[in-house]
Write a structure and sequence with these properties.
Strand order of the largest sheet: 4-3-2-1-5-6
Largest sheet: 6 strands, mixed
Number of helices: 14
Radius of gyration: 25 Å
Mean pLDDT: 94
Low-confidence stretches: none
Number of strands: 14
Order of helices and strands: HEHEEHEHEHEHEHHEHEEEHEHEHEHH
Helix content: 40-55%
Length: 349
């Protein structure tokens, strides 16, 4: 595996030279800032070989480092063996931050250009990084380049799994009711629009489910809500005839997933509610700042308060889980008793 990582680093560095980049930063995020992400965006894992859920990889033309927390110190040390990557133990005294390490690597150098993918980094992370690196050495940060598009030849595609309807029998509240509550909450913050980028929130609002992320019932998409309409940005191949009919009935328009930034540029509402820690740098800078209102999305709080149907669903799930556990223990205990029995031994002559 280490040989593959070294080959990938070589390809990356060749491309960096062509693009006049001194370093590139790979986070563990996707355009939706989820904790669990589709394979298409696992660039940090691909370039470093470290498969933990949290970490940041940084590659320069001569060196490389990976930051992760104490959950993964042992695993990371093992997986990084034989590669250029040096493990940086986060929150351990003496461990430099990414910016500090880069400043040390390029001390006294001129024309230092750092690259990040603006589709993956949150606006607040990108902004803080830009100013921090500027203060430490006048370094310039480029945010509009994804090197993996050119060097990751067998990169998994963005998932195209079909979307399914979550019946009202299990959801307990219709999409129209949820949208009405969201618009009321937005008005209280002097906003008339909201971009929903968190995949679990899109699924909750629309009463839809998917399978784009392992063990998470979500699907890759964005939802733009304004005062009079809502638009789902999604790959249309993911929509069955049944789901398309459902969305039309709910008066939800659909546009291609890649049309989001254009739609934000053309947003004609009075004020779009934004949060720099939830929006990526690319998305945040797609609309006019004069039409933005800084605030917190009302959806997480709404989603956290379960209705009666959802509560009953929890109880039913726990009951089924309990039955499964009892069946498992009934199967396991006799096997353990057999293992405890003394094994037959032949008599010695």
């Amino acid at each position: 595996m280490e040989n593959k990582i070294q080959e990938r680093l070589q390809k990356l560095r060749q491309l960096m030279k062509k693009k006049n980049l001194s370093a590139f930063i790979f986070p563990s995020t996707d355009p939706h800032q989820g904790e669990y992400i589709p394979d298409h965006w696992k660039g940090r894992e691909w370039i470093s070989g470290f498969n933990g859920s949290a970490g940041t990889a940084v590659v320069t033309l001569k060196s490389a480092a990976l930051w992760t927390d104490s959950r993964y110190f042992i695993a990371a040390e093992e997986q990084l063996k034989g590669t250029d990557f040096v493990l940086m133990k986060e929150r351990i005294e003496g461990t430099p931050s990414v910016s500090e390490w880069l400043a040390s690597e390029f001390k006294g150098c001129e024309d230092v250009n750092i690259g990040i993918d603006g589709w993956l980094c949150s606006e607040i992370y990108a902004t803080e990084l830009i100013w921090d690196l500027r203060d430490r050495g006048g370094f310039y940060v480029h945010t509009d380049f994804d090197p993996l598009e050119e060097i990751w030849n067998d990169r998994p595609s963005i998932p195209k799994n079909k979307v399914e309807i979550q019946p009202l029998l299990y959801a307990g509240e219709a999409t129209a009711s949820k949208l009405a509550r969201i618009r009321k909450a937005l008005a209280e913050q002097q906003a008339d629009g909201l971009l929903v980028s968190a995949l679990d929130e899109v699924a909750w609002v629309l009463n839809l489910r998917g399978s784009d992320v392992h063990c998470n019932p979500v699907f890759v998409s964005y939802l733009l809500i304004d005062a009079t309409k809502a638009t789902l940005f999604i790959d249309h191949d993911k929509l069955t005839t049944e789901v398309q009919t459902y969305l039309e009935k709910e008066q939800i328009r659909t546009k291609d997933y890649r049309e989001l930034t254009l739609a934000l540029q053309e947003y004609d509402g009075n004020a779009l509610l934004v949060n720099s820690s939830e929006m990526t740098h690319k998305v945040y800078n797609s609309f006019k700042s004069s039409r933005a209102v800084v605030g917190t999305s009302p959806i997480p709080a709404m989603k956290a308060i379960k209705n009666d149907t959802e509560i009953e669903g929890f109880k039913h799930a726990m009951l089924r889980d309990g039955i499964a556990m009892v069946k498992f223990l009934k199967w396991l205990k006799p096997l353990l008793k057999q293992e405890d029995k003394p094994k037959y031994r032949s008599k010695r002559n």
